[in-house]
Amino acid sequence: MRRLRATVRTPTGFAGSAILLLVLFFVVAGPILWGPQAARINPLDILAGPSARHPLGTDELGRDILAEVFTASRLSLELSVLATLIGAAVGVPLGAVVAVLSPRPRRLIGTLINFTVSFPGLLLAIFLAVIVGVGSTGAVLAIGFGSAPGFARLSQTLASSVTEMDYLAAARLLGVSRTRLLFRHVLRNIGEPIILNVTMSVGGALLALSGLSFLGLGVQPPSYDWGRLLSDGLANIATNPLESLGPGAAIVITGIGFNLFGESLAQVLGQRVAPRRPGRKERRRLLAEPGARPAQPLPASPGSPAGRQPILRVEGLSVTFPRQRPASRPVRDVSFELAPGEIVGIAGESGSGKSLTALAIARLLPNGAEASAARLEFLGNDMFTWRGAEASRILGTKLPMVFQDPMTSLNPALHLGIQLTEASQVHQGTPRRQALERAAERLRAVRIDRPDERLCQYPHELSGGQRQRAVIAMGLMGEPRLIIADEPTTALDTTVQRQVLAIFRELSETTHSAMIMISHDVAVLGELCSRVLVMYGGLIMEDAPVGELAGARHPYARMLVEAVPDLGTARDRPLATIQGQPPSPAALPPGCPFAPRCPRALERCRLELPAATEVSPGHRVRCFNPLTFDETLVTLVEPATP
Amino acid sequence: MNGLRQRHPSLEFYARRSLRFVLSLLAMVIVSFAMIRVIPGNPVRAQLGITATEQEIRIRTRELGLNQSLLSQLWTYLGHLFTGHLGTSITLQEPVSNIIATRLPNTLEIASMAFLVTMVLSISAGLLLGAFTNGGRHPRTELSFTATTGLLVTIPEFVLAVLLQYVFGVKLGILPIAEKSGWTSYIMPVASLSIPPAAALSRLVRVETLNALGRDYMRTARSKRLPARLLYLRHVLPNVLTATLTLGGLLLVGLIAGTVLVETVFAWPGIGSTIVQAIEQKDYPLIQALVLLLGSMVLFVNFVVDILLGAIDPRSAIRTT
Ligand code: SF4
Fold first, then answer.
1. Interface test with A, best of B159, B256, B274, B306 (most A CBs within 10 A)
2. Quick check: B279 and A260 CB within 8 A?
3. Whole-structure pTM value
4. Across-strand partners of A536?
5. pLDDT in tens, A621-632
6. Quick one: which of A179, A154, A25 has its CA closest to A94?
7. In this predicted complex, what is the ipTM?
8. How far is CA B122 from CA B195, B237, B265, in A?
9. Which domains are delineated in chain A?
């Protein structure tokens, strides 16, 4: 009911429901108010043109055509609704059931549906007209059964395609709860087309039935619907065009009403009401918010030898979703530098802003997200203003990305060969054959067997681990200077994880490319990286050389580290667990975002945002009450066994 | 079979689809055969009317072969089909095969033209609009596109045909009102056949484009900084084609039905207008042949679409074999 009201409130929904209400009025009142007039035969006024008394003229018996059009509303709509109901009642459940059946019966019924879907209503109508004779019964049955396989096929494909879709990445990206997003998106994806289809189908059935009546295969005289009136009028199109255009208009207007209504209903159900203000994806902006101001001149990163230009320079990077309600800022004041060949890890829970940080750096933020920074430079180029072929060439060959889910990050419709070689072909003008040779070589480098054969395969023919390796190989086609890997091993099982990590380690040695490795798993980062940034609530809480990670100073960072047995200072102690939930990016507290969960929180922590301060060379912490190196977080440690 | 599946999954797919096509054709033949045998009462009397004498009925029954056993009737029917012997039209007094030979090309002409126009128009418009309105940009363009196509989708081809006939034929007098003559006489039938499906399909293409643009693999493609042309034509288009072809096939099938209506409006000498007359006059041999013909065309279109889908989207091939 609430949804219906919301539907009526959209402009299209309002227009649609207004038309449908009008149609409903004529369906109910038409035959009562205009029926008698439509039946009045007047031999003195045959085939008259439009006049004040007869706005659409009269037919060959002198009956008023406008009154006939009004009267015909009831029969036309009754038959259409009936036909649609027959179709939907048979088709939708059939298709939905088929989707969950075991393969054999599914294939059988699927074949049957495919066979019958190929029968247009008109052919069925002809068939039935031959058997039961021409008339409205045959026509309604034909249109109804004719539309059933369509409904079945639709609900079948929708139900089975939902399982293939991948919204988890997006869910994590936006920090929205998985169940909520899944529920909403799945519902939207299957509900919308079905509702759209059923509502529009009433309109469609009306058109089909009118068509049948128009051909003389539907409603038979002395009854009449709009289709019959239209075909009767066609004979006089040269003398009185309104006689055929009148009923034609009635058919079209009613159809539009159904369309508009169905569409806005679907929109409301899918909550896809258009955003108010479209905006640029990325926009440079000075940060006005206190506490979000970029840190003072950055201390040189420990890994970057003085004098060498950093590969990447990030200062005061923020990501906002200005159109979200409430507007959120999932990344705040992120600053760090990356020296050539350095591997930096970003650790944090989902929703900490680590993935968005990576996407913002690569200029690949999703629609609706905006990045701003005091400075964001890759190889000395300002990422906000750097455009053109040169920028594309360098970014396309030197800044590859590896995403979390290899199942969805390769294009399912293209051979691996195309996907691996296209960047080289476009940006470096490498001839196809040569590019393919290099691709095979790169696949071999990431230990994919039979590389030449793989190039002619589609992504679905590879396993998850192979696909992720293929994505990595894709990044190696150019000369990578910075590889950004966003949870590259999370979707893989443990043994494959190890192999893929080994490949990353090997790569950093052979290519000397810098890397940003994002993971929720500190252990993975500790093995691979020279420096780890720990993010929480969109902020870098600690930026520590990996050697100092075991004695992390920030309470949150320490808790993460102590949750890993190998990295913790005291291996004999039971593991720490972190209680509570991370904050939502849309509702960040004014003070330290970790304050609600922090055992060391002070009064001040809830009011002010701590600034990043250097505690030792190349080691920054954002905390008012940091731990000392050898202090332990006793309060947090829960005995594993009582 | 298992070995074959492992080595050539696509080959098995094509084999299965071909088998299915042949089987459905056979079913179609049987349906067309059974059609006039299941008519309640005596079809011959129904056709000749109540004034017909016993003698006339007996002669006509023998002409139609209805006096023999069902099995031998089916046998004769199959044999006749293979030799192209489709019987003689009762009303036109002409072999059915002749009627089809002269009228089918006229139908195929406007249907294939309309299909081409539909595909070209809708794919280019849908992709363009999808790229243009991605991420809620240009809401006004989006609104006018959905409004226009929404209107066009709703106008059924025969109402559009009547409207065009009135405007261009009667009022402006620049196009021939009806019947087949020079190339100008094709314009209105093709337009009325292609405009509604093109509107429907371009909407779908736009939505599918938006859908594809939001997928992970597009993020990967964007990370390669490909030019927009490659991004859309190579990465989006194939993923859009699956849905487009599925609906396109349905629309093409609808087009076969649509020709019946449009041919009637424009008095186009195709098989569509013929079948309507045949039904009115209960010309069973003609109806039977035309139902078989239209049905087979429908099956053939579906077969071709399936094969194309398998080639474009290999996952669908594996999934449904
Ligand atoms: S600033 Fe305060 S609340 Fe935040 S981590 Fe440090 S001690 Fe805890």
1. B159
2. no
3. 0.72
4. A539
5. 999 988 887 777
6. A154
7. 0.79
8. 10, 12, 25
9. 2-269 (1.10.3720.10)
